[in-house]
Specification:
Largest sheet: 7 strands, mixed
CATH superfamily of the largest domain: Type I PLP-dependent aspartate aminotransferase-like (Major domain)
Number of strands: 12
Radius of gyration: 21 Å
Number of helices: 12
CATH architecture of the largest domain: 3-Layer(aba) Sandwich
Number of domains: 2
């Protein structure tokens, strides 16, 4: 498969066409079934709704196409991460997690992995290479980190981890396959919450794991089948529909973020600001080398909690909400969830609104503070 994002996008819309026979519907049908017609030998056929579903298959085909790997669908991003942990780790293993990434994997590790005898350590994303990876079974990276947007060198981490026998898992939720391809940089597995930009319409929870390692894929698929952590066919159908327009939405969101970020940086009400696309951002050079786009998330710090809330709630084109990646621009004050950020820290997720109209609404809300 070509590395060109445009070529991947063009092919994506025609994956289903390759299997169509005359008279078949062009759009993907929704298969709502827990049982299938199964006389005789069941091998090679859909058997039971916990094992597989034609609608999952189509969504997985799209995800795998984008990452040039095998994809396994899950009912949420955390279900995908859980499958990585419980499908690949055993008592006595040790995991390295980012201290500044999405907080739920850390909570999961503390509450459930630790009592099972699976130890974990935390390390900041920017210093992930410091201290090496001796003794770790799994090295889990999230880059850019959520919500601070720090970046680590995936290729360097992968090389160092592999040298001591560790596997590398990359959470690519913030970037999607159009913005970054961790498997091409050396990661063994990718996890992502497709709830975000891949679906894009804020109406479904979904996640996936991708890998080119057949043994890892088999173990994770077994975990899904035996645990019952399966996606619903309607959710898979919605994701399939969202993926068809991901490339154009992601392009709009990233392009708008690249225009809006420097304007935010220069606004007198904005203190600190992080966006990998800014030439003076600490992560810019690394981001330029390992990412196809700089993403649509902007991390900005206002003067106080009150200012942050007033900005988010007072902007006519910002939806106050957790999560990100929808067609609408959204934002939230992340300290309310316990993230180690300043009280006035805001994660701004740029959506698909016309850029200048969006900036005018943002500027108006900032000017009113």
């Amino acid at each position: 498969m070509t590395d060109s994002p445009a070529a991947r996008a063009a092919q994506l819309a025609h994956l289903r066409r390759r299997k169509l026979v005359k008279g078949d519907p062009v759009p993907l049908p929704l298969t709502m079934a827990s049982i299938f017609n199964l006389p005789g030998d069941p091998a090679g056929f859909s058997q039971y709704g916990r094992f597989d579903n034609p609608t999952w298959d189509a969504a997985e085909e799209m995800l795998g196409h984008l990452e040039d790997a095998t994809a396994i669908a899950f009912p949420s991003g955390m279900a995908a991460i859980s499958a990585i942990f419980f499908g690949l780790l055993k008592t006595g293993d040790r995991v390295l997690l980012p201290s500044d990434g999405y907080y739920t994997p850390r909570v999961l590790a503390e509450r459930f992995l630790k009592p099972m005898g699976i130890a974990f350590d935390l390390r900041p994303t920017t210093t992930y290479l410091d201290g090496g990876f001796d003794g770790y079974r799994m090295v889990f990276v999230e880059t850019p980190s959520n919500p601070g947007l720090d970046i680590c060198d995936i290729a360097a981490v992968s090389a160092a981890a592999h040298a001591v026998g560790a596997i590398v898992v990359a959470d690519n939720t913030t970037m999607t396959p159009y913005g970054q391809l961790p498997l091409d940089l050396g990661a063994d597995l990718v996890v992502a919450a497709d709830t975000k930009a891949p679906n894009g319409h804020s109406d479904v929870l979904f996640g996936h794991v991708t890998s080119r390692d057949a043994a890892a894929i088999a173990a994770i698929k077994d975990w899904r089948k035996l645990s019952g952590a399966i996606p619903g066919p309607f959710e898979a159908w919605l994701l399939h529909r969202g993926l068809e327009t991901l490339e154009i939405r992601f392009d709009r969101m990233c392009s708008s973020a690249e225009i809006i970020a420097p304007r935010l940086r220069d606004h007198p009400k904005v203190g600190a600001l992080r966006f990998p696309g800014l030439p003076d951002d600490p992560s810019h050079n690394l981001a330029s080398s390992q990412m196809q786009r700089f993403g649509f998330l902007i991390a900005m710090t206002l003067g106080s909690q009150a200012e942050a809330d007033a900005f988010v709630n007072g902007c006519s084109l910002i939806q106050p909400a957790t999560s990100f990646g929808g067609v609408h621009t959204s934002a939230e004050r992340r300290a309310r969830w316990g993230d180690a950020v300043a009280p006035g820290f805001v994660r701004l997720a740029v959506g698909c609104e016309p850029t200048e109209e969006l900036w005018a609404a943002i500027e108006t809300s900032l000017d009113a503070l």
